[in-house]
Amino acid sequence: MSGVGASARAASAEIARSDTATKNRALLATAEAIQAMQSELSEANQRDLVAGREKGLSDAMLDRLTLTPERIQGMVEGLQQVASLPDPVGSISEMDYRPSGIQLGKMRVPLGVIGIIYESRPNVTIEAASLCLKSGNAVILRGGSEAIHSNNALAGCIQQGLEVAGLPQAVVQVVDTTDREAVGYLISMPEYVDVIVPRGGKGLIERISQDARVPVIKHLDGVCHVYIDAEADPKKALAIAENAKTRRYGVCNAMETLLVDSLVADVLLPSLQSIYDRHGVELRGCPKTQALIDCQPATEEDWSTEYLAPILSVKVVDGLDDAIQHINRYGSHHTDSIVTENYTRGRRFLREVDSASVMINASTAFADGFEYGLGAEIGISTDKIHARGPVGLVGLTSQKYVVFGDGEIREP
Amino acid sequence: MSGVGASARAASAEIARSDTATKNRALLATAEAIQAMQSELSEANQRDLVAGREKGLSDAMLDRLTLTPERIQGMVEGLQQVASLPDPVGSISEMDYRPSGIQLGKMRVPLGVIGIIYESRPNVTIEAASLCLKSGNAVILRGGSEAIHSNNALAGCIQQGLEVAGLPQAVVQVVDTTDREAVGYLISMPEYVDVIVPRGGKGLIERISQDARVPVIKHLDGVCHVYIDAEADPKKALAIAENAKTRRYGVCNAMETLLVDSLVADVLLPSLQSIYDRHGVELRGCPKTQALIDCQPATEEDWSTEYLAPILSVKVVDGLDDAIQHINRYGSHHTDSIVTENYTRGRRFLREVDSASVMINASTAFADGFEYGLGAEIGISTDKIHARGPVGLVGLTSQKYVVFGDGEIREP
């Protein structure tokens, strides 16, 4: 692994200084290679699927592992889309003169070498590689062993793309998954790896965060809330509460707990119940909720559970302070929304809720790299330092100071 | 320690939502308390100095430990200055409409709880506490055991300041240094501490980075370079090479290695030598340097050594690529400067040197929070993620996404 690390470090200097056209050429040539190699990709994927069935993988895992023609086309379009995004690298801002005479600003620069650790979905190979490459970083990819043939075939397409653009092969490296200790090395080589992005289940991410000796951009849970304030517009409240829960159940920006102000709970909860009944969403309520509508009781554990399923916990709260306290205590600092027409309470919610995305009168479903205009995202960070929320190309860079002078020296 | 952490976490919510006036009141009241308690502070400091002499601390350590009237006045002025700085918290930027109708922007928010681990200088107590408080963070301070009486006396002043402003005492906590395991706990409580800033010698910082389970904003070395290009203006080159080395020797932004292009080495090195002779700076040169001027030979180790002393290593390089390679290999990614009138080489140096501050025609001595207009700094980061270079108030915050909507829901 230290050989992989050293090659990545060397390649990172070259990709960091590559111009936008060269990086785009590599991305588009990779897309062409994928289109040309569709049958080889399907064949490699079949080998993984056969092995997976033999190993007794669940249907859900086999589904994630499968490269359908649509998913292959999705990868091609993803590469084209990343090529069309603006290049953040080298962008200079805030070049202002200081009293000493120097002109000081900031330049956006790649992070260096990024390690991505992920599980069964082979399309992550292309998504992650394209975002890292466009943002001027070298990347080391460590996918799941069950996707090894698919990942190697995709890596072959990327290598073709790099070659067409005249970029070093080590800009994107796929780690041999038969090396069981590879992950352990990857997360403990600060001399070669600048940041780790784990993508997968909570267990994987917790394990990696625990053991890493390199900074980790991580996303653990999405326990998102909608709080319906006493002065909410009922129409907006019902639409947002429906959309945030039922648009998709298995995504991290789905609402998992609904908070309703006690002043409007008796009016709104029955309407909400009929909406959720229509979608087959199971409700688990606090005692006050249970007094107003017929539902299961919520346990203490429910308040911090990411269901990723048609289940919703519902709590009646006593005003804004109670709502904010609940969210900051039980939430996962991902995305939370208030529905209100009250200016002061909206403003307080915005400032005091400690989450990566805080919204007024909008569905939590908008918390997403595409909706935020980032083009694509490598993940949604629930960390506090560096990047919070959807991490796109800019989140894979940082800023250095640049100084233009005219021979200035500093007085004692 | 988990009690300290839990109190800090609770206090962090309160300081995060405090308005600018309240935070400034706490800072100015702390300054007043320090002025009123000057004799008590000197007395407490005397106890540390007596104990330090008994323990046989070096003169340099005793000097750092001493609170002279000037240093006490410096702390008072520092507090007043931080109070006068703009408050970064709550600042909203880039509120643009998205095609969905939502209006998306970013709000600057505190990091939460910051742990500061430092060595003998008691004035760090006030510097660190004031920056954390103003940026809306709670802070846990763990100073050196040799400064315990001074630090406790200063903590008393801060507590007075917090009380005057009606802020919770746990916004600033000073850890009892008799608890030898406190540092170990402090750096491994991600549930209570969001980021660690170690301030002190390289040994301390390396140890903490190694063991921390919390992100660390760190500054290891300052191995800074000046590269004199073939097309440098000789007057600027000599002035910058003199200033970057001789302004102060013991600071991290001092030049430690001078690189001179081989095309101008024979003309410039003799002039440089006479400048450094006048200052009593010892030169250690590569073989080509030794062929041109009389000096000691530089060893491989010299190229990566932070002397913090009147010693300079000098290398003759073959053009820009050689210079950039040397800097990225042996430097510490702190601050590096090129002296040149050549547009293309200046531009390449700016982009390709991978350091927190990269300069053209300016002395490395400018790499400093005050010169950069940050007002004050908690340290100079040589990390890649989050903040690079001098870390001021803004570096102690991050950004969350905020969304203003009008009842928007996301389509499938």
From TrEMBL, chains A, B:
Tell me which Gene3D superfamilies the record gives: Aldehyde Dehydrogenase, Chain A, domain 1, Aldehyde Dehydrogenase, Chain A, domain 2
What GO molecular function terms would the record report? Answer: glutamate-5-semialdehyde dehydrogenase activity; NADP binding
- PROSITE patterns per UniProt: PROA (PS01223)
Where does the protein end up? Cytoplasm
Q: Which InterPro entries match?
A: Ald_DH/histidinol_DH, Ald_DH_C, Ald_DH_N, Aldehyde_DH_dom, G-glutamylP_reductase_CS, Glu-5-SA_DH, GPR_dom
Documented EC number(s): 1.2.1.41
One of the record's GO cellular component terms: cytoplasm
Q: Which reaction does it catalyse?
A: L-glutamate 5-semialdehyde + phosphate + NADP(+) = L-glutamyl 5-phosphate + NADPH + H(+)
What job does the chain carry out? Answer: Catalyzes the NADPH-dependent reduction of L-glutamate 5-phosphate into L-glutamate 5-semialdehyde and phosphate. The product spontaneously undergoes cyclization to form 1-pyrroline-5-carboxylate.
Matches recorded under PANTHER family: DELTA-1-PYRROLINE-5-CARBOXYLATE SYNTHASE, GLUTAMATE SEMIALDEHYDE DEHYDROGENASE
Family of this protein: Belongs to the gamma-glutamyl phosphate reductase family.
Protein name, per record: Gamma-glutamyl phosphate reductase
Q: Which organism is it from?
A: Reinekea blandensis MED297
List the lineage, top down.
Bacteria, Pseudomonadati, Pseudomonadota, Gammaproteobacteria, Oceanospirillales
